[in-house]
Amino acid sequence: MNWKLICKLDDIPQLGSRVVQRATGGDIAVFRTADDEVFAMHDKCPHKGGPLSQGIVHGRRVTCPLHGWNIGLDDGHAVAPDIGRCDTFKVKVEHGDVYLAV
Amino acid sequence: MSKPRLVLIGNGMAGVRTVEELLKIKPDHYDITIFGAEPHPNYNRILLSPVLAGEMQIKDIILNELDWYAANNITLHTGKEVVRIDRVKRKVIAADGLEVPYDRLLIATGSTPFMLPIPGNDLPGVIGYRDIKDTDEMIATAARHKHAVVIGGGLLGLEAANGLKLRGMDVTVVHLGPWLLERQLDEVAGQMLQKSLEDKGLKFLLSTQTEALIQGESGRVAAVRFKGGMQIPADLVVMAAGIRPNYALAEAAGIYCNRGVVVNDTMQTYDPKIYAVGECVSHRGIAYGLVAPLFEQAKVAANHLAGYGIGRYTGSVTSTKLKVTGIDLFSAGNFMGGEGTEEIVLNDPYGGVYKKLVLKENKLVGGVMYGDTADGPWYFQLLKDQRDIHDIRDSLIFGQSLVGDVGHAGNSKAADMPDSAEVCGCNGVTKGCIVKAIKEKGLFTLDEVKKHTKAASSCGSCAGLVEQILASTIGGAYTPAALDSKPVCGCTDHSHKVVREAIFKEHLTRKEAVFEILNWKTPNGCDKCRPAINYYLISSWPHEAKDDAQSRFINERAHANIQKDGTYSVVPRMWGGLTTPAELRAIADAAEKYNVPTVKVTGGQRIDLLGVKKEDLPAMWADLNAAGMVSGHAYGKSIRTVKTCVGAEHCRFGTQLAMDMGVKLEKMLFDMYAPHKVKLAVSGCPRNCAEAGIKDVGVIGVDSGYELYIGGNGGIKTEVAQFLCKVKSDEEVMEYAGAFLQLYREEGWYLERTCHYLDRVGLDYVKGRILEDEEGRKAYYFRLLDSLKDARDPWQTSREAEPIKQFIPIKLEA
Ligand SMILES: Cc1cc2nc3c(=O)[nH]c(=O)nc-3n(C[C@H](O)[C@H](O)[C@H](O)COP(=O)(O)OP(=O)(O)OC[C@H]3O[C@@H](n4cnc5c(N)ncnc54)[C@H](O)[C@@H]3O)c2cc1C
Ligand code: HEM
Ligand code: SF4
Ligand code: FES
Questions:
Q1: Do the Cβ atoms of A16 and B564 come within 8 Å?
Q2: Residue closest to B343 by CA, chosen among B403, B401, B396
Q3: Closest to B239 (Cα-Cα) out of B123, B109, B132
């Protein structure tokens, strides 16, 4: 596994996100919950590709800004009644630094 | 100057509806006089059927109590027939000699039952079925006599027959046609209907022509004789063989009539001072006999009587529903088919279900349903929309829930739904709410339900369901009222009202406190409640509650509108729609520098730069800020624009400095957040080039000052603003408009536009707070100014705030 340091935990607002741009493979959205849990997934809604990083984060979910689908942050699954899945990435926080597995 | 006089002839459903619409958009404009031949205030004629059937009483069906006429300063003459219209002297003359002059006349005389021209048609005991008097007579007769004959197997005849049967009479329906309701049903459905009605004890004589009515010894009717000689006993004969529009009065006055008072698309007769609506009218050769089209006519007529001149009536497609409890039938359009059409038929005689859809060129052109009519309104919508149905053709006959684009699968039987079931997902409206509104506010059409409940006013996918509820409710199947206390969202059981009040009473300034005190079920809410709570906090406690960016929709966080491809649009403010060469140059430079693919002039009189990458936003703002421009808030639940016309500054018609007034208002309201977006307009004279009639606050210059209108809306459903008051000075415009907006900011529910707020609380309430209570008004105005006193350009704030990180992506090296 290839852990990359991406930023400090405090660089991500609580109930907010940051976007990680890659040379290939598309953007990754990194989310922080109210409890300082951090999750990462493709920044691409399974519905019509909306940028999930721009959505409202609540609990362990994010609401896509385009048409309001709710996506589970931990598993990338769309919340019923919608059906779809977004690939997730492993993240860890050590000493206030956030690492992403790519 | 005295007001122009409006006289209405016909105190019935279409005429009074027109007056109501008129009062809504332009109150106090006319001195109104209404003549009604019946001795009652306006009542709901449709519900005479449930009254006859014993399901309702007369007092339940009154639509406008006498108080209503008094409260609106309407002079009402009940029991007084107008016998002549003098178009030269512009006055109407009543049977008792009373003369009333008019400037505008509205004819809404309805129609009368057609009495077959046969011997005996004037005997006692022979009546039509049209009004309260007829209904009373039927009820009285049923108590004393046995045999009833109803002539005519149409909707009216069957409803009369059903009612008389329920009141204990022995009823025979005589019908000339080969099957019942032949104008609404095909033969199969007609026979199924006949069977169900026979099960209820009614008797039928089809393809039978009535020849004479025979007088008995008592002097009243005693029997009916048919062609061929057969004769049956009858103590009561109800003629329901059609209606005849009442246009004799108009015709005698020389107004062009042709089987009805002929009107154009603005409901105007050949005399431009005279309008006509309702069943007495012939529009494009059609006289309608159902209320839905008449109410559409009423709306158009009211708009033209108000002098706005917006809207044309272009005719209606109608659908049919029989109001006999326990019988479900529905038909619309060309259900018989013919040249070039195809039919899809589902026939289940044992289950009592029959459906036939008629298609032409992949479009639905008609249909009949019997037994299971749940999907009727949906089919009707497809028909009206002329939607291409080839993609859903295979499952079309099985109805909406199987086709799949409903979102309410399984709930399609409106009548079976519990009151708590959600009908409109977009606006969170329950069935109970809709039924209550229909009952209490006397609603008839989908549009009215939309307006009063917001159901079906957004995506519209539940419109069919709402129509079913409407049909089953007006059909007499009333259910007890439910409370309107819809929770904000799934995170709580509390309504917007409760949340707002708690924030205010408990002095809550943080969302966490709201969640705790009101026992939120989720740890930090969701995308529905968080923005609402954030708004309530900052509007209740300005300067104290801290705005929570993460509770705002992305547009309000990025101060730009997210587009479908994830890019943003940037709209710099142009105060009152005014700009300068230097600003235009700066916009042009920014557009080139940041490779803006589309530049567009918006409906709000400014320029939109579309397709900007998020990471470019801060730099672009910096450039625009440097040229003196600020955010246009084109993205927010906030003040958007104040549209102006060129006004007295340049225009030869202008009476007031519209541009100047607009700029002042826009500066005053800068950075004002609200429950929903807020748009204003200022026109320099009543020609109203700035279209102030469809704005949240519309200001129209007149010689002596300004007229203020509130609650207009140009959105999904256009809503004409209502007249609030007239004021003299610019300062008063700011004070009154500001006070109204603050009232809305303090009491509106999140995502409720001013028109919805106004619908909820009523114009009178707003007048009470803003016009009649001077101190109160000044206090609202002061609170508005106070909460906006430190307003700052959000571009500058978020550009300078540390961190601007949300705009900057983290680059990952390979
Ligand atoms: C029993 C029954 C059931 C119905 N059911 C339905 C239904 O389910 N759905 C539906 O859509 N429609 C139904 N209708 C039809 C609906 O009621 C009419 O379409 C509607 O009432 C017509 O409105 P109007 O204003 O044109 O006429 P009206 O409501 O008849 O009003 C006209 C008024 O003008 C008065 N008037 C006439 N001439 C003069 C004069 N010279 N001076 C003063 N006053 C005058 C009349 O007395 C009358 O009160 C039903 C009608 C009846 C009778
Ligand atoms: C007869 C004299 C009239 C004159 C001299 C006149 C003049 C103008 C002018 C100068 C504008 C541009 C205003 C601006 O840029 O702010 C305008 C716009 C407009 N006028 Fe008129 N007008 C007249 C009548 C009317 C009438 C009768 C109507 C409507 C029934 C009307 C509807 C409009 C509308 C809707 C706009 C806005 C158009 C837009 O947004 O592009 N005007 N008019
Ligand atoms: S509203 Fe009146 S003042 Fe304004 S541009 Fe139109 S005509 Fe002129
Ligand atoms: S793209 Fe995310 S909900 Fe449509």
A1: no
A2: B396
A3: B123
- The whole model's pTM is what? 0.52
Question: B747-800: per-residue pLDDT in tens?
Answer: 999 988 999 899 888 899 999 999 999 999 999 999 999 999 988 898 888 877
Measured in angstroms, the CA of B135 and the nearest CA of chain A are apart by 51
CA of B521 relative to ligand 3 center, distance in Å = 54
Q: Which CATH architecture has domain B5-111+245-305?
A: 3-Layer(bba) Sandwich (3.50)
Written out in words, the top-level CATH class of the domain with range B555-626 is alpha beta
Report the greatest alpha carbon distance in chain B.
Answer: 109
CA torsion angle B477 B479 B484 B488 (round to 10): -80
Domain spans of chain A?
3-101
* Rounded distance between C-alpha atoms, residue B418 and residue B617, angstroms: 50
Please name which of B658, B663, B722 lies closest in space to residue B694, comparing C-alpha atoms: B722
ipTM of the complex: 0.82
Higher-confidence position of B270 and B413:
B270
Topology of domain A3-101, CATH: Rieske Iron-sulfur Protein (2.102.10)
For atom 6 of ligand 3, which residue has the closest CA? B689
Whole-angstrom Cα distance, residue B74 to residue B392?
A: 52
Distance B312 CA to ligand 2 centre (A): 20
Residue nearest atom 3 in ligand 3 by C-alpha distance: B654
CA distance B128 to B138: 10
Which CATH number is B126-241 given?
3.50.50.60
Residue with tokens 């003359």: B93
Closest-CA residue to B552 (of B571, B570, B530): B530
Give Cβ neighbours of residue B381 (< 8 Å, ≥ 6 apart): B463, B464, B467
Q: Pick from A36, A54, A66, A97 the residue to mutate for testing the B interface (most B CBs within 10 Å).
A: A54
The helix (run of H) or strand (run of E) holding residue B725 is strand B722-727
Pick B426 or A12 by higher pLDDT: A12
**Residues in contact with B393: Cβ distance below 8 Å, sequence separation at least 6, in sequence order:** B344, B359, B362
Rounded Cα–Cα distance for residues A57 and A63 (Å): 7
> Dihedral (C-alpha) A86, A92, A97, A100: value to the nearest 10 degrees?
-40
Distance CA B637, CA B672 (A): 9
